Each structure stands twice: as C-alpha cells, then as structure tokens.
Predict the structure of Putative transmembrane protein.
Amino acid sequence: MPAATYYTSFTTPASVYTLVYVTIITCFILRTKEFVSAGVVIESLFDWLLIKEHEDFIHYHIRRTSLTIFVHSLLPLGYIFGLSLVMEDLSIITSLDGLWWSTLVLFSHILPFTSSFFILLWAYDGWSSHPIARTLSLFCPEGTSWKQLASTINADYRGIDKICLEPSSMTKVVVTDTWIIKISPYNVNLAHQSDSTLEVCSADTHHISVDGEGTVQYVTIEVKTIRPGLPSFFIRCNALDFNDLKNKIRRPIRILDGITFHKTRTDHFLEVFRETVEKNPTYALQANQELDTCIGCMLMEPQVKLVKSCTNSQCTICYCRPLWCLDCMAKWYASRQDQDRPETWLSSTCTCPVCRSVFCVLDVYLIIK
C-alpha cells in the first residue's frame, strides 16, 4: 500500500496518540508537581536500582544521571512502538517513507545504543570516566583520588546545617560549609567555596495571582571558580531565600548595578512600622538598668519599650521591661494581623508577646540610654 494511503488512514488516531504521548512525556521530563507527587519520576520508578542519597551522595547522583540519560534516550523509540500498537500494524515502521519519518526511526534506534555505550564506558572503570567523577578529579590534591574527595562531600552533605533550595522541579541547589552544588537531571555542578566568586546577574518577578498582588521573585546567581578546567554555572533561588544563602556562603555575593530585590507585603509594612515608631516619643532607661539580648533574635540589644500613651480604649499598660529589638517587635506585630487585610495593619492593635497586654503602633517607644 502506498505511503500516502497510510498517512490518510491513520491521521486522526496518530494525531491523538502523538498529542497524548508528547503531553505525558513533557510532564515526565519536566517533573511537574502532579507527576512528582504520583511518583512518576526516575528516582521513584527506579528506586530499587539507586542507593540512598543521604548515604552516598556522589555515587547516588552518578547512577541517577546515568539512568536518566538512558531512560530519556528510550522515549523516541517508545513513541514509535506505541504508534505501531495504536495502528495495530507493526509494518508501519518500515513501510512509511519520507525524510522526517526515516530520520525519526533512525534517531530513535541510535540514541539508546549511544547512551548505553557511554554508560557502560563510565561504569567499566568504576565510574571514573563519568562527568561527575571527572569534575571531582579537578578538585583533588596531588596524590588523592576522586573517591576520597567524594567521601568528604558525602560526609558534608549529611550535615544537618546544609541549605537545600529547589527553585524548580528540575534543579536543586545544596550549599554546605564547603561546597556549592547544583543538581540537574543530567549532571551535577560543584564549586568549592574557597575558590569561587558569586554574582547576582538577573532578577525576575512573576505574578502568582490574577490581580497581581501575589508575586514571587527569583534571582539568578553566576558561580565562577578560578580552578582551571571548571566552567561557571548558574543557580536560581527565591529572593526570600537569598539572605539564608548569603549567610551560608562564606564568600561575598556581588550584585550587579540595576538589580533590585522585590519587597514582600510584610517587608513594606516593616519599613512603615519603623518610620512610624521613629516619630513616637522615646523611652529613657534608668541609670542602673541593664539590657540583655533581644529574646526574639538573640543578637541585638532590646530597642523598644511598650508605653501606653495612645487614646485607644483597647490598649492597656504593659509592665514588661525592654525585651525586644525593633525588627523583632515589628515582625511580631505583623504576624498577629489579618493577613487578608493589610490596609488595616497600621491602625490595628496587637498583644505583648510576654504579658499579652494590648498595644498599638503609637505605644512602641524607642529606647535611649
């Protein structure tokens, strides 16, 4: 039967199958939230082939990336096989002509064989030829192997004080005391903090609500290393996580001119709260009165005292000594407000974190010594 007859006879079922297959495979590759929650991802489907990430971080990702490359290389062949089942005629694979179809058939067969060849080559010498192992070898001092360095990274990853960020379903950023690690489907990028420089090169804001009131901002950071042979790579993080990231990384993070961080609704309120309190009267400490650290952040000295001075009948007298810094008091005040009505925050009231006496913004006095 001529090829044109085949095209005419299966146009509708082939189109439906193609649309369904492309949709499913796109969700599978991009690791959408629904597929992740259902366990339709490489890590869950082939858990029996992988070791535990917490036990052996490096070898886990060596196996995971290899398995991901192999499974993804089978997807074009899976499309052709599924199409032949839909048409109930296996001869379709060999009967159809045309440059695009021939190329697809050839590509779908070559891709798995090529990926299998490289994976077997990597595994043959104990994974020493794997891209992750070759990257680690660039960090190894003279006389040490990449497996020794992998053991130290594994121990570093097991630390409880590491930072793990997931800016998207496909990437993960791990920052330990020593390493900056970016995990992607096909590779793992590493940088040692001691020989790296970080630079915020862009920031993008996305609306997460129809009216635009809910927004989220992501910053893109370029990680450059002075170690020869290692390319730079980019990591992304939520702007709200940037301070945690900056505190964990021992190197300064340079922010390019023109990049501004989006302020959340709470951040805007904290600025207004501080400006209002600075206009209030001040509270003078007694000569022999000593201050401890703020019981909120445990870093700064107490900076405010609650003094009933407003005309609001709901407010009461607070007898607590100064215990809070201005920022912690502002955050406490914001957390006790109606989150759906930010326009009422400044004119509303709050309760003292210790004695529960009611106060408003006009009752917050800055301390002077």
Residues 263-365 form one domain. The radius of gyration is 29 Å.
